[in-house]
Design goal:
Layout lengths: L7 H11 L7 E4 L9 H16 L3 E6 L9 H13 L7 E3 L4 H13 L3 E4 L3 H8 L16 H12 L9 E4 L14 E5 L13 E3 L1 H11 L4 E5 L6 H10 L7 E5 L3 E2 L6 H9 L14 H7 L3 H11 L7 E2 L1 H13 L4 E2 L1 E2 L2 E6 L7 E7 L9 E7 L1 E5 L19 E4 L4 E9 L5 E9 L16 E2 L2 E2 L4 E8 L5 H9 L15 E8 L11 E4 L3 E5 L9 E7 L8
Parallel strand pairs: 1-2, 2-3, 8-9, 10-11, 12-25, 14-20, 18-21, 23-27
Antiparallel strand pairs: 4-5, 5-6, 6-7, 13-24, 14-17, 15-16, 17-22, 18-19, 19-20, 23-24, 25-26, 26-27
Helix pairs in contact: 2-11, 7-8, 11-12
The structure holds adenosine-5'-triphosphate and magnesium ion (2 copies).
Length: about 550
């Protein structure tokens, strides 16, 4: 519910119910099935479903599938999965293509009323004739064809007698209107293409500006909520509803698009990333798609809270990606088990620990949520720590392990380094330490203090695992610098080469049976999700969702 975010759309709806203009609210979420949904769509979903829910109304999921060349069943399926995963249930599932016959009849009605005509000008000529903001448009020489001739030509268009681009149907409105959208917009075009729903039944397809208001009216949508780039189309939207003599009169209301820093968001660009093989599909964890965020490990709760916090205003500045990360940390903090994983292992031999022996140590599963209970962590003579938790020659203020220094092993003992083993090239390959049995975690030892606590896993029982660390695919500063240089190269030339790092490490043996999409907080490393695509028996793959620290402040 958007209850806590009173916003201007809610005020309009409330007024319409109070005045009796409507007695129920119907909204729709109308994606075109030409790609996967992204985080921007989540805003539209939350507004449309959330507002209707608040007023006990209804929301349709409607596929705005009027452009057969770009649409595909794969997208239809993925969109449904993503809407459900975000936590929303549609009342009716609709396809704009189911209304093609009715739309055709409404176009015939316009022709009969002298409000539409078949034009033979080509696309380029139509653009030229349209004029500009400072220059009125010119009428097409075909504008004054008789209704009879138009009806016959439109029917022949439908029957497939012309090639793509030979003719279009245009609304006859006003070539001198200050609003360019009203200068006789094209409402039907010829496209000999197979449609994912209607097959080869049609070779003419309605344009968005004509189809959308009709779809809304057919479904008795009361409030048609869309993004601000459609503001200039509102007069045309109303014209279509009026002149097509629709019984229902939906009201279009615009809100600001949601944009994020350090990402690309348009479906066209996202599709390029997929088609060029730059990402591992639409659900690559670096994608701002709902499926990508899901695979990376974001939760529906985090996405919903984030979107609600960004609000419903008309503005559309880019929101800091750090804010989205803030919400996933908040959501996972109490829910996800804590564990230890070593991403870049360095072997430590504890020389005074009896050979061949081991013990089980107790550790809280989540100290911030004691109800989650305890876990068992094995400990023995050989363990792994992180390579960068040891330095042979440390700078001042380095409180981790170095020769002669003592640190705490989380949930275990103090250890002190006394020897460094190197290979022929001088690389540290192993370090030798002693441990102090008196310092066992949980015994209340207070004899002396150490400044560093590091994590570890037992070398004998640890499970190998793969960790995938991510950075943004595109960086705003790089894109901006490219633009300033006047570069008009594709954004594909500016992909961050470090956007993914794959490393092999170890995890606690009690994680043997983790399942795809399980989420954990790895001590000091952040939150991770078990990747559902690459995880296989004997090969657990973790995607880092976020690191632990954030510079973001609400
Ligand atoms: P894109 O430009 O990314 O391809 P689109 O607007 O063409 O997106 P549609 O499938 O037509 O995508 O979108 C369905 C609904 O989602 C529309 O009502 C649209 O206004 C809304 N929507 C799309 N992108 C955003 C966004 N970034 N923020 C808020 N709403 C959005
Ligand atoms: Mg669209
Ligand atoms: Mg689009």
């Amino acid at each position: 519910s958007l209850e806590h975010n009173s916003n201007f759309i809610r005020t309009i709806i409330k007024g319409d119910l109070e005045s009796g203009k409507h007695n129920k609210v119907i909204t729709r979420f109308p994606p075109e099935p030409n790609g996967y949904l992204h985080i921007g769509h989540a805003k539209s979903i939350i507004i449309n479903f959330g507002l209707a829910d608040d007023f006990n109304g209804r929301t349709n999921l409607r596929f705005d599938d009027t452009n057969p060349l770009k649409e595909d069943q794969e997208y239809v399926d993925a969109i449904q999965e993503d809407v459900k995963w975000l936590g929303y249930e549609w009342d009716d599932l609709r396809y704009a293509s189911d209304y093609f016959e009715e739309m055709y009849q409404r176009a015939v009605l316009l022709i009969n009323k002298g409000k539409a005509y078949v034009d033979d000008l080509n696309q380029e000529q139509i653009r030229e004739y349209r004029g500009t903001l400072t220059e009125p448009g010119k009428e097409s020489p075909y504008r004054n064809r008789s209704a009879e001739e138009n009806l016959s030509l439109f029917e022949r268009m439908k029957n497939g007698e012309f090639q793509n681009g030979d003719k279009v149907l245009r609304a006859k409105i006003d070539m001198t209107s200050p609003n360019l959208n009203m200068r006789d917009p094209v409402i039907y075009r010829i496209s000999h293409a197979t449609h994912h729903n209607t097959g080869d039944q049609w070779c003419i397809y309605p344009m968005y500006a004509f189809a959308h208001p009709l779809e809304d009216a057919i479904e008795d949508v009361t409030h048609s909520l869309c993004t601000t780039e459609f503001e200039d189309q509102r007069p045309l939207y109303n014209w279509v509803v009026q002149e097509c003599e629709m019984e229902s009169q939906p009201q279009q209301i615009e809100f600001g698009r949601l944009n994020l820093t350090n990402t690309v968001m348009s479906k066209r660009k996202l599709k390029l990333l997929v088609d060029e093989g730059i990402t591992d599909g639409w659900d690559d964890p670096r994608m701002p798609t709902i499926s990508g965020l899901r695979r990376k490990g974001f939760t529906p709760e985090a996405i919903r809270e984030f979107v609600k916090e960004t609000g419903v205003s008309k503005g559309s500045g880019a929101v800091d990606e750090a804010m989205l990360e803030h919400y996933v940390r908040e959501d996972l903090k109490l829910k996800s088990p804590r564990t230890m994983g070593v991403l870049r292992p360095l072997k430590v031999v504890i020389t005074n620990y009896p050979e061949g022996e081991s013990e089980m140590l107790e550790a809280e599963i989540n100290p911030e949520n004691p109800e989650m209970g305890m876990r068992q962590v094995p400990f023995s003579r050989e363990i792994y720590i992180e390579q960068d938790d040891f330095m042979e020659d440390p700078p001042k203020k380095y409180f981790r392990l170095f020769p002669g220094n003592e640190v705490r092993l989380k949930h275990a003992y103090f250890i002190k380094c006394h020897d460094v083993i190197k290979d022929d090239e001088g690389n540290v390959v192993e370090i030798h330490c002693t441990y102090d049995p008196e310092t066992k975690s949980g015994t209340g030892f207070t004899g002396r203090k150490v400044k560093g606590t590091i994590h570890w896993v037992d070398a004998n029982s640890a499970i190998p695992a793969e960790f995938r660390l991510y950075e943004p695919l595109v960086l705003d500063e790089v894109m901006k610098a490219a633009e300033e240089e006047g570069e008009d190269k594709m954004f594909l030339d500016y992909i961050n080469p470090n956007s993914i790092e794959i490393i092999k490490g170890y995890i606690e043996p009690n994680m043997e049976n983790v399942q795809p999409q399980d989420k954990f907080q790895f001590f000091r490393h952040g939150y991770f999700n078990v990747d559902p695509k690459h995880t296989a028996p004997g090969n657990i793959v973790f995607n880092r969702i976020v690191s632990l620290k954030s510079s973001f402040k609400l």
